[in-house]
Amino acid sequence: MAVLETIVVAFWAMLPAYVPNNAAVLAGGGRPIDGGRTWGGRRILGDGKTWRGTAVGTAVGAALALLLNAIGSDVGSALGVSLPTFPPAVVIALPFGAMLGDILASFLKRRTGRERGAAFPGVDQLDFVVVSLALAFLVEPGWFLETFTLPVLAVIVIITPVLHVTTNVIAYKLGLKNEPW
Ligand code: CTP
Ligand code: MG
């Protein structure tokens, strides 16, 4: 696979995992998942992880995966690359895994004494990728291994932190997010 094709496939395959966190920022609010409960004197997850943010984030990511499935062959032939089609279980697994990864990161942040909004370098940038890929592998191992080849995974590990930092700085500057991470 040519380098450019690898980059396009990596970006395409991860879009349903990239968008949920940003959708959650826009949709967030309402009841926190942990219902305000604490563990060891600290919140289990904190007010930054809400039912609404999680549900809307997952739904937006899944809707995007379906849209990509609908336009994939046209876009692929226009670009001259072969783009992956998301199987039904992956349509849910990628966005839900992204939300779950972000939730697990908040759990770890609270256990390590970080308040809501505190930065956790490395974890903030890659948590959602690791869990969304793990869930996608669990539900569709064959498709996963065909799509996420080693070069594609390498591109994902490089472009994800760059995209994550860029979109969060933009959301911060637009006043949508309290911190630029
Ligand atoms: N959000 C949400 N539900 C989620 C994830 C995010 O409602 N599952 C919304 C919240 O309004 C949150 C905002 O998106 O404040 C930003 O997300 P994030 O940076 O992940 O949360 P933080 O508030 O920084 O909290 P934490 O320290 O736990 O990451
Ligand atoms: Mg944050």
How would you summarize what this structure contains?
The protein has helices at residues 3-27, 51-79, 88-111, 123-139, 141-147, 150-173; strands at residues 38-39, 42-43. It has 181 residues and is an all-alpha fold. It has one domain (3-173).
Q: Describe it for me?
A:
This protein is mainly α and 181 residues long. It has one domain. The protein has 6 helices and 2 strands. A two-stranded antiparallel ribbon has the order 1-2. A hairpin with a 2-residue loop joins strand 1 and strand 2. The protein is elongated. The two termini are 33 Å apart. The mean pLDDT is 96. The chain binds cytidine-5'-triphosphate and magnesium ion. Cytidine-5'-triphosphate (CTP) binds next to helix 1, helix 2 and helix 3.
